[in-house]
Amino acid sequence: MSASAPEATASPGKGFRLDLKTAGPLLALILLVILGYSLNPLFLAEGNVSNLLTRSAFIGIIAVGATFVITAGGIDLSVGSMAAFIAGVMIIVMNWAVDAMGVSVWTVVLGIGCSLILGIGAGFINGFLTTKAKIEAFIVTLGTMGIYRSLVTYFANGGTLSLDSDARNIYRPIYYDSILGVPIPVWVFILVAIVGWVLMNRTAFGRYCMAIGSNEHVAQYSAIKVDRVKTWTYIIQGLCVSLATIIYVPRLGSASAATGVLWELEAIAAVIIGGTMLKGGFGRVGGTVIGALILTAIGNILNLTEIISNYLNGAVQGVIIVAAVYLQRGSLGRRKKAAE
Amino acid sequence: MSASAPEATASPGKGFRLDLKTAGPLLALILLVILGYSLNPLFLAEGNVSNLLTRSAFIGIIAVGATFVITAGGIDLSVGSMAAFIAGVMIIVMNWAVDAMGVSVWTVVLGIGCSLILGIGAGFINGFLTTKAKIEAFIVTLGTMGIYRSLVTYFANGGTLSLDSDARNIYRPIYYDSILGVPIPVWVFILVAIVGWVLMNRTAFGRYCMAIGSNEHVAQYSAIKVDRVKTWTYIIQGLCVSLATIIYVPRLGSASAATGVLWELEAIAAVIIGGTMLKGGFGRVGGTVIGALILTAIGNILNLTEIISNYLNGAVQGVIIVAAVYLQRGSLGRRKKAAE
Amino acid sequence: MVDAASASGSPILSASRISKSFGEIPVLFSIDFDVKPGEVHAIIGENGAGKSTLIKILSGFEQPTSGTIHYDGRQVTLPPNGEAEAMGIVLIHQELNLAEHLTVADSIFLGREITGWGGFLDLKQMREKSRAILDTLHVRIDPDARINTLSVADKQMVEIAKAISRDARVLIMDEPTAVLSVGETETLFEQIRRLQARGVAIVFISHKLDEIMQLAQRVTVLRDGQLIATVGTEALTPDSIAQMMVGRELSNLYPPKHEPDVDAPVVLSVRGLRAPGVKDVSFDLRRGEILGFAGLIGSGRTAVAEAIVGLTRRTAGEIEVHGKPVNFTDVGKSVAAGLAYMTKDRKGRGLLLNVGLQPNLTLLTLKKHIKGAFVDGRSEEQALEKAVRRFDIRARDASVPAGKLSGGNQQKLLLGKTMESEPDIIIMDEPTRGIDVGTKQQIYHIIAALAAEGKSIIVISSELQEVIGLSHRVVVMREGRLAGRLEGAEITEAEIMRYAAGIKQDGDNERISA
Amino acid sequence: QDEQIKIGVSIPAATHGFMGGLNWHAQEAEKRLEALHPNIDLVIVTADGPEDQASDLEDLVSVQQIDALVVLPFESEPLTEPVRAVKDAGVFITVVDRGLTDPSIQDVYVSGNNTEMGVNSAEYMMSRLGEGDNIVILRGIPTVLDTERFDAFMSTIEGSGINVLDDEFANWNRDDGFEVMQDFLSRFPDIDGVWAQDDDITLGVVEAIRQAGREDEMFVVGGAGMKEIVKGVMDGDPLVPVDVLYPPAQIATAMDVTVAHFTSNGPVLGEYILGSPLITQENAEQFYFPDSPF
Ligand SMILES: Nc1ncnc2c1ncn2[C@@H]1O[C@H](COP(=O)(O)OP(=O)(O)OP(=O)(O)O)[C@@H](O)[C@H]1O
Ligand SMILES: Nc1ncnc2c1ncn2[C@@H]1O[C@H](COP(=O)(O)OP(=O)(O)OP(=O)(O)O)[C@@H](O)[C@H]1O
Ligand SMILES: [Mg+2]
Ligand SMILES: [Mg+2]
Fold this sequence. Notes:
The complex is a heterotetramer, with 2 copies of chain A (about 350 residues), 1 copy of chain C (about 525 residues) and 1 copy of chain D (about 290 residues). Chain C has about 525 residues and is α/β, with parallel strands linked by helices. Helices cover about 30% and strands about 25% of the residues of chain C. Chain C has helices at about 50-60, 105-110, 125-135, 150-165, 180-195, 210-215, 240-245, 300-310, 330-335, 345-350, 355-360, 375-390, 405-420, 435-455, 465-470, 495-500; strands at about 15-20, 25-35, 40-45, 65-70, 75, 90, 170-175, 200-205, 220-225, 225-230, 265-275, 280-285, 290-295, 315-320, 325, 340, 370, 375, 425-430, 455-460, 475-480, 480-485. In chain C, the strands form 5 sheets. In chain C, strands 6-7-8-3-9-10 form a 6-stranded mixed β-sheet, sandwiched between helices. Chain C is globular. Chain D is α/β, with parallel strands linked by helices and about 290 residues long. Chain D has 9 helices and 12 strands. In chain D, about 60% of the residues are buried. Chains in contact: A-B, A-C, A-D, B-C, B-D. The site of one magnesium ion has 2 residues of chain B, from loops.
């Protein structure tokens, strides 16, 4: 009854809960892998696994950023358009640099720098409008979503912006090469995930995000600079979008109005499948990573089999997403939920 | 110390507060109308106004339903796909009825009945999965969104389902005819808005929605059947989608995978522009109606002018939405917000 | 007092051999309890003793692990979630239980709205009835006001209004007076006596022993989930109750006041402060001084504190800390300057209810626990250990969400959180809200010790005894202004009440001091 | 000839009428060809966007281990490299409709002709209208092929004296077509012709014109060859007197050609450009597929 217990139980208790929490999405992922393998053993072939991981990097990196925004009680619908916009501007700038100074590694460095600045700037704008102008995050980011998408269409004159082919040859390896057998995008994803996890779980900032998402008043009364922290979550989101775009551009070497459509929904879905709550107050970067893998794996599995009509892909996807979340909330999470 | 003051001030006070609340979106709408008129006086021509109102009916009716879901702390992303699905099944059923029994008014009645049942059923499924299976509304409705969209694509074989032309001739008036100079869809919209307003503001059900969205524990401790009320909000949403579909089908007489795409975003945007909070607890049906009008008017204005590049339509739309919300929250609403 | 005869019938609600465990953890052991019509039966016990759990079982909000409940002589299983209200068992929860976005009238009638023609809400009638009930409680709350615009005390009054508006046969109140001041408490007691006279059975929980002596016919004492005794009040004194509760003698609730040093430097000086809810407030706080803030509900004490630490914008006036003018724009700045404010709204402003003890304790002072760039879990754990010992926080383990602690333990956690910042100047708003006498004594001694160390403390409290017992000087607020300042022997209940009620004003007093 | 041949078909998902038709033709062709050639296995995958399609291509190579690929790129430029990667894995490549930026990748190219579609539409307009007549244009989604059609149309009517009152995007969607046309109708009192460019849009446009009761004032030129529109042309609908073909069946042609590469004796290579003829009442019958969903 007294508090003598904490010392003894706190650490293991905490460890155990962490296991249970990650277990939900992880279990869903494992079942999905088993399903994939049983439908087609090539699912676990090295090439496919590497493809799958590389692919999940885009959504995964963006979703890590979204974890912060959502944990702090916000939402960002603009990420897909933002990615298209950043990709478009990167390409324009790099093409201009090629014209002006010829092709070199610096062209790509310039493009990357440009992307980072844009990502941070776009994140800041979202953050500023939500915190200072006090407009709902949903509306702000719905607005910027439309704006970025329009701008990229405008820059591309309704068509596609393509990276100069020489510049592309220099840039290509960033998507297509591997280090120690692991594709570079996967390295970036791992890095972002680790940094994100540390930031969320081991720094004051992460704690502040959870506090704000959980009860903004308490955060304010606890000397947390609520507006500043919230703005930072959007900046982190922008930075993540920028990183995802940096590895996206060399993949296809182009950007158009169709780039990044619906990424926002996928990113938010990854976050929520991973166990973060849409209402905020509770962030799980590890879960988000698994969520992104689950989403990518579903698409991959659907390509592995011909059992169902292509028209029904979306239905299968929907069923699997709901089932995956049910699996973790419904069974394992039931008691936790009920108790809350 | 005594309670003598309230009597004197309560009634006017309330009236005033009510005014202020509706004033935000209304002001934005008025400014938009002025803008539209100054860009092209035809904006206020009878024909255009009637078109605009009729058009806003779809999103408006759906958004009235969404107001309930959001007020009770939920969200429904499936409405657009649900509309497409219901429209598709209606057409299939009516075509089948024509084949089997020939064309009559009953064909249309059958279709309408079918639509109502589907809408209620689909709403119930969303509600059931969120409340009983305890899966986040975002995930449930993201899932059903994919499922309905897939199903309609499947039924249409990837193409378009078209209503038998004889049946269509009978059905047509429901979209195209007017009563007392007001198009029927507008009547339906008005009716839905009034019923919605009364339900939200003048019945215990509306109070329960707000209580649940504001604090689910409190609602539960007040002997409110939280799960039941939440399920009902989804059913109301389904019913609204069904009504919107009933007036949508005679418009073009067809349904395809492209029907209702992004309606969910528009509906949610209308709700939030109207002053309902995304986090729940606070519903304004009147605001929602104005929100739907604002959204439709923006699109209409963009079609009436040539000042800006077509490519930038989305950007203008984004800017106006953000500005409209800023107008109400930023200036008028600032103090209220701060107090909350 | 109500005559004993009315309370001598057979019990209307009784529980026998009630035990309750949350998971593995037992919190109640075979408790017998009953209440008779027209009786006030008080439950007392230390924080975490199981009082709230017991009455939640008595009203159906929790189901007992074992044991039976009889209502009206029949064995029953009470329906959950407040549905027992329909049977006449009404509970006022310890923690405020109102939906922030609803209006006062909506809240009072939530779950049993008055409907008129066609099943539509009869808003007019609900508003009028709300106003009538609030009138009987002598509170000035607009039935159309939204809950989130009310102060904590007003919210509590709404809760009370809500409860007495129901046709209760058993009315159970869990620390209804914790945030109320003397005046409000008195009106509440009037209402309780009125209901009692009508034969309503009343269960009353409070840590204020004098209230229990005043009101109750019988007292049940719980300790660590065990039933210690049920006795008639006439056989008791506050001291003997306290002793049963804590299990030890409780002499000297208040520590001896050390002589205030009149020459001590002024550490906080407020001049002509105007802010939302504050109209022209000036006062000084000296080093080593305990300054009491008294006043009725809504008199603006909280508003003064919040304006000082930068939670609300001040519109006029100067504030000096250690002789230097300051303008705190957020709490961080005031904490950095050594000035901490402890909110009275532990649930809405003080604690994150969904996280464990440790993150709550260190939220205000997380910077102290940063090593390199990272939060140092070890150092946080040590801080928690220390706070747990110092404030006697009792929790199953450190991972229990703060919302699941007993009310008093939440308050202690909040106290620990504020004290973590090691402030020189502390503004404590209702510091012992919901705290048992034993711990109260500890806290009073902590406060006195802090003052002796040279810290300066403002105690905002609605409990006059507390203000009187602790403070070197007392200021009384009324309608956003300082109505009076009292020192030494002037600090008496009567004098404070005179200022608080506006019978006497600052100008009436010849010795106006800064 | 008995070895198993796997052919991957990667196309955009059926998100609007034309793509729906294309999906249908692809599935019909799959059934037909698989029944005809037991050793041929066709795998159709559909994509929601360029990056999705790039992923599909990777899967077709790594998991399905295809021998040939029939691909209708979502967009030309982004998919050039992914298709090249497929080619590098030793796969026979057939590109449909939207050419890659590097044509040397493809073994076979099958396509409709966007430029010809724009030109034919413009020429029909010029045959019916003249100096001082007004038209409005409803475009698709801002993409390269929309731009090709539009530019070809505009350069053809240049100098004819026909006024283009305005153009707006209708997103290849009948609802948007309806609303944009409603607005054109309230804006412009005198419209003589409408170029809707796509039959989904056309359907919306026609309803808007009917609603306004201005059927007699103008005519509409659509595009693609949707069965409802072709039927109307066949029946002599004065409002939609013609259609300009842009055959969704080209995917079937491409699949046929690719299968032929493995089943016929010699290699099949080269370009197969399908024309965009004007569908008129006289020739409509040959373009009418009542079983197609499109
Ligand atoms: N839902 C719950 N889950 C787990 N433990 C709980 C729960 N509710 C209460 N407890 C525990 O049961 C014990 C008794 O709590 P209770 O709230 O009944 O105390 P109390 O006597 O009302 O104390 P206080 O005077 O502080 O309000 C405490 O240790 C508390 O932590
Ligand atoms: N931010 C604000 N804006 C407007 N009015 C306010 C604000 N804060 C407080 N008030 C008003 O000022 C008055 C004083 O409230 P306050 O909460 O400070 O009183 P209190 O003396 O602490 O009383 P209580 O015992 O209820 O806590 C109240 O009428 C309250 O409604
Ligand atoms: Mg234009
Ligand atoms: Mg308690």
